[in-house]
Amino acid sequence: MGLGTATIKYILFFFNFAFALSGLALVALGMYIRYYGSKSEELANKATGDTAGLAALAIIIIGGSVFVVSFFGCCGAIRESHCMITLYAMFLLAIFLLEVAVGVFLYINRDQAEEITRKSMTIVLNDYANKTESRAFFDEIQHDFHCCGVDGPQDWVERTATALPHSCCRTDGGPGTTCAKTEAWQDGCLHKTVNMFKTNANSLFKVVMSIAGGELIGIIFSLCLASSIRNEERRQGYA
Which helix (H) or strand (E) holds 1? Predict the structure, then answer.
């Protein structure tokens, strides 16, 4: 095997070794999200229809698939197996096409993000007085995002005649205290959350495109290596 083919072989091996580690990391992340989601299962189901659980399951499946595909790539490169490398290229192409399909779906339905977020927040806000989980969840959002209510402090005024929750205040006095409307954050949490989602979505898009670019490189290298191995096998057959 020539120097160029040997170089491609080892590049492909180390590429897939890193790819396998990323797959294991995705599995671990999915398991963590699933475990964390189970701690507030009632709230998650009520607010998002167990979206967190489904997302965790999807991450675990994708991570497992990435690990299995990388295994074929590593073994095929080391053993110089034309069959395994070709199978690896096909799997990698399938993952790439799936990512493209998911990306297109999310782009087409991007305008629904605000509607879904509004519905979820409204459900949790309505349960604020009756559910400890809902109260802790919304207090955390208001405190961390410097916001109040879904669209603003008026959401609380419409629901109760008492003062606003402590987490609405610019100076949070903690549980057991209240907040006057004049001292509250005026921005709604929906606006803050959607803006954060858009910012993170742009970063996530760049990461996904980087991964997709790496997958294309892996496909090209694997097909080149598979072709080189097949040609070498043919030359040996003619000898």
Answer: none
